[in-house]
Amino acid sequence: MGMPEALHRWTREEVLALPDDGQRHEVFDGELVVSSAPRYRHQAILSKLHLLVGNYGEAFRVGTVLLSPADLPLLGGQVAQPDLFVLPHGNFAQDWSDAPVPILAIEVASPSTVRYDRGLKRRGYQKAGVAEYWIVDPEARLVERWRPDDIRPEVLLERITWQPDPALEPLTIELSTLLGEP
User: Fold this and answer.
1) Beta partners for 73?
2) Beta strands at 132-137 and 104-108: parallel, antiparallel or unpaired
3) Residue 103's closest CA among 143, 130, 69?
C-alpha cells in the first residue's frame, strides 16, 4: 500500500488568485476555508455590531472599523476575512497585503462556520496577536472572547465590554439587545 498523498497547503497567493465565485475564501495554517453568503440573522447581528463598534470607534478614535471581504494578512501567509474588524489607526497602502494586525476581530457563528471559528480561525487570530477575538453565537446566545494567550475563552452571557485603551470609557454591549430577546 502506498504512502498517503500529503494534503495541499494553500498559500496567500493561491487564495488571492482564485476567481471571484461569490464565496469567502480564507487560509489558516495552509487550510483553505470556503464559506457561502451568510443568512439574514447573521447579517442583522453584524449590522448592529457595526453600528455599535463603529460609533464607539469614531467617538474615541480607536481605529478603523471595517467589514469583510478584506483578505487581511496574518502571520505565515494566512488570509483572514473576519465578519467585522478594527484596524489600529495608521497609514497603509490601499492593498490589504500591508494592513496591520486588527485590534479586534469578530465572527458571527453559523452552523456551517462555527467549527472553524472556534478552532482554526481562533488559533490563527491568537498566533497573529489579535488583541481580542469575539465569537458571537446566536444559537447559544453568548459571546466567546479570546485573547492571544487564552487557553479557554471568557464566555459572556449578558454583556460584553470592550476597552482597547484603559484611558477610554469602555463600550458595553448588552447581548439581549444584540441577539434579541429569547
Assistant:
1) 79
2) parallel
3) 130
Query: What φ, ψ does residue 157 adopt, rounded to 5°?
Result: -110, -20
Domain ranges of the chain: 38-179
Contact, 62 vs 56, CB < 8 A?
Answer: yes
Domain made up of 38-179: CATH architecture: Alpha-Beta Complex (3.90)
Please give the chain's pLDDT, 182 residues, in tens. 444 555 788 887 888 788 877 777 878 788 887 777 778 898 999 999 999 999 999 999 999 999 988 888 887 777 888 999 999 987 776 778 888 889 999 999 988 888 888 888 899 999 999 999 999 999 999 999 999 999 999 999 999 999 999 999 999 999 999 998 76
* Residues comprising the chain, all counted: 182
* Amino acid residing at 180: G
Q: Under a CB-based contact definition with an 8 Å cutoff, are residues 81 and 72 in contact? A: yes
Residue 31's Cβ-count burial label (10 Å; 0-12, 13-18, 19+) is: middle
Phi, psi of 59 (to 5 degrees): -60, -40
CA distance 80 to 178: 24
What pTM, to 2 d.p., does this model score? 0.82
Give the Cβ contact number of residue 136 at 10 Å. 27
